Amino acid sequence: MDIAALQLKLRDSFRLEAADLLAELDSSMLELESRPQDAALLNRVFRAIHTIKGSGATAGFKEMAAFAHHVEELFDEARMERLTITPVMIDLTLQAKDLLGQLLETDQPATLAPVCHEVVEALARFLPKTTQTAACSQAGDDVAGPQRHHVFFKPHAQVFFSGTDPVSLVDELRALGEATVTARTEGIPPLASLNPKHCYLAWDVALVSVHPVAKIKEVFLFVEDESEIRIEREFEAPATEDADNGPLASFLNIAAQSLQAVEGFLARLRGATEPDAVCCRNYLRILKTFQAAANQQGQPESAALLGEDILLLEVAVSSKVRISDQIHEDLAAGHRKLEALIQSLRRDSRLGAGPPPAAPAIPAAIVADAAVPTSAAPPKEAPRARATIRVDQEKLDRLMRSAGELLVARNAFPLLAKRLTVEHGLSGVGKEVKDAGDHISHIAEDLQAAVLSIRMTPIRTVFQRFPRMVRDICRVQAKEAELLLEGEDTELDKTVVEQIADPLVHLVRNAVDHGIESPEARTRAGKPRSGKVTLKAYNKATNVIIEIHDDGGGMDPARLRRKAVEKGLITPEAAAAMDDRVALELIFLPGLTTAEKLTDISGRGVGMDVVRSNIRQLHGTTTLESQLGRGSKITITLPASLMVSKGVLVQANGEDYVFPIESVVQTVRLPRDRIHRHERTDFATLRNEVFPVLRLADHFSSQPRTGEIVWAEEVPLAIVETNRGNIGVAVDSFLGQVEVIVKPMGRDFESITAFQGATILGDGRIALVINPAGLV
Q1: What is the CATH number of the domain that holds 196?
Q2: What is the pLDDT of residue 378?
Q3: Do 184 and 255 fall within a single domain?
């Protein structure tokens, strides 16, 4: 994979991460509005913005990172208790959050520069006009001006698994002042034991900065719990080294580490059959660093010896040839001469011949590259880290479809076993086929359950967008409303979650816009000034129920009937015959609205009909309850997954149909004398319950029924739950329980509400899947 592809992959990965962070930022800001002094909330907001800034810069979103930096400054000051968050700041930050989302998606960030600049200037007006010296003073420093700090940073070995690049943290320290960075390499194991996914380096940083210690600690905000970090303030100037030993000590330190690295490069190049360009270039950089130190510290003899090796390597790198045995021997000889010279200098110095200091002045990555394999220590198994991966949804969809097809295909085994036994008299073979089918069935069910659990996602991802929307509507309309969220951890198939988002937007928006009254109207009605909208999700059998309830003015059935007649949607006679429950359903007619005036939010009669249509496409149902003056409740019933479902297979008039198993209360064979006719409708009684009965063959017949039904002695009856209560559906026979993949029937059949879709049975037959709500 080339660099461009890697960068593109990194950007896509960051977009997914940033979307989650922006959603968290949105909800945190709304909480912060009511609790502006909450330190935990301030830290949560700061961390989200800080992560967007740091990860965005790494992924190449430079404009986004730069903009996030200005937002971060505001909350940094709030965390330091130098300012208090106000509603105006919340508004600006929410506007900034929206801009961050746009910068995340646009390919032309320059087009957003003017509005970003306006937000930055507005935020800057709230920042305290403190000087850097004052900042030091507030942090507890008793000496004004730049201060010297010693920072030791040793990240956790598995730091890369958290998506953190420790080198970027060291670079952040550089941005705080003048920094001298020294890599600590003693933790690097032999190559045979080295895990390329682990970090073995540590860093010593001598930092001269006007920033307080708290600002330095912020650099390590996300790694402090799992890293070794020491920040020490140097209150006194370091002792002056001896004039002779100071430069010599520095040079010998560099020399010792350089020679150790060179040994690794020589071993790596020995016997190499291919040119190792990376190794040669890093070897060359080590030698040049070594030579520069020799010249700077007055060691001309060492610099001259290094010059010979540098010349040899430059020729090898420029010509891209393999290091020959002769070149290798010449490099090794130069190394031995340098080593002897350094040992001589060490003996002559007052440093003695002890082990060299552990702080090299050479790039850490090059030192790590110089490590060579040894057979002394066996490789150690690194502790396994808990990791997650992001998978393209299309891949999961394909896997789920395959698992579903396998479940459906296994339905053919019982049929094959029956044919072998009955038609061919091969009962033994039939039993073997049945047993094999049972085994495959168990495997298929386990596979389906595993894939389905992967696809399930909490509905929280949808619910999180609504507090901000309710807040904005209330501010525009001068209303007061509180949104209560319940059951955010309820899980749905990812496809269902994504498709239910738009219908819920319409419903929550209408609850605030149409349902909740103005504070004055609520006060006159004896209600609290602030209304409540409750968005609730919970599981019921194999379905997920979502309720949207408001304590507003409710719906007036008489007004709905009058509006429907005025719009020409129903006749006056039909309106007069409607009871209140049916009249409430008029709100779902296209073009019907009860709003007195058009607004940017609603009032055009577009929305509720689309809501019901979209929910039907998800094989769901919608019911509405409302009491004038007390509020309304809309209940949505959805299947947890659209991919595979269980059903009861029935036959009527020679055709196969499937009832979703979650809608079937029970199946019975009802005696004929339990069915009675009243006012052109058949009713059945069962266990003191009375419910209407329809015959499926007549319901879908192209010929209208004439006269009364002549029932058989025993009637196979499926008691089916609908949004209007239970009904009995008479069929010719029950064929058993099946696993089905429901396929949509296409746009030409959207108006037929009695069917959810179609499915292919194990023997290749096609069956229609019933939508119980559409039977009413």
Answers
A1: 3.30.70.1110
A2: 42
A3: no
Separation CA 135–CA 76 (nearest Å): 12
**Considering its fold, how many domains does the chain have in total?**
6
Per-residue pLDDT of 271-298, as tens digits, reads 565 556 666 766 766 777 777 777 766 7
List the domain range (segments joined by +) for residue 601.
Answer: 459-555+594-639
Nearest to 360 by CA among 227, 556, 186: 186
Average pLDDT across the chain, whole number: 77
Structure tokens at 245: 């030993």
Question: Token pair of 324, please?
Answer: 């020959």
Collapsing DSSP to helix, strand or coil, 654 comes out as coil
Structure tokens of 774? 């559409």
CB neighbours of 420 closer than 8 A, spacing ≥ 6?
426, 427, 429, 430, 433
- Work out the angle between the directed axes of helices 325-348 and 300-319 (0-180°, nearest 10): 160
> Higher model confidence: residue 330 or residue 272?
330
Residue 747 half-sphere exposure, CB side, CA atoms within 13 Å?
Answer: 0
**pLDDT tens-place string over residues 510-548:** 899 889 999 999 999 999 999 999 999 998 877 889 999
Residues 124 and 195 in one domain: no
CA distance 686 to 692: 11
- Would residue 81 count as lying in a domain? yes
Whether residues 208 and 268 share a domain: the answer is: no
**φ, ψ for residue 174, nearest 5 deg:** -60, -35
Please name the residues in contact with 117: beta carbons below 8 A apart, sequence gap of 6 or more. none
Residue 637 makes CB contacts below 8 A (sequence gap 6+) with: 540, 543, 544, 545, 620, 621, 622, 623, 723
Taking only the tens place, the pLDDT of each residue in 218-239 is 788 777 767 888 888 765 433 4
441 pLDDT exceeds 90?
A: no
Counts of helices then strands in the chain (DSSP H, E): 26, 22
